[in-house]
Specification:
This protein is of the alpha+beta class and about 80 residues long. About 30% of the residues lie in helices and about 35% in strands. The radius of gyration is 11 Å and the shape is globular. It starts with a strand and ends with a strand.
């Protein structure tokens, strides 16, 4: 996977991971991939719902050592 940009939103509480994700995705081109790292468990549902609403695709999500990783392809 070719990651275009990484957003470190670890330690931020809702709604900040989504706010920062929106700002970050606005800086990349259609088809590029944004990696989002967060520790907010609410992001599991929030990022999926936000991505779907915006037409973006969550290619993969995983959790390692309490950190959630999301790979979002911009619409």
């Amino acid at each position: 996977m070719n990651i275009t940009k990484t957003l470190d939103a670890k330690g931020l509480a809702c709604p900040m991971p989504i706010v920062r994700t929106k700002k970050a995705i606005d800086t990349i081109q259609s088809g590029e991939i944004l990696e989002v790292l967060t520790t907010d468990k609410g992001s599991l549902n929030d990022i999926k719902a936000w991505s779907a609403a915006g037409g973006h695709t969550v290619l993969e999500q995983k959790e390692e050592a309490g950190v959630l990783y999301f790979y979002i392809q911009k619409a």
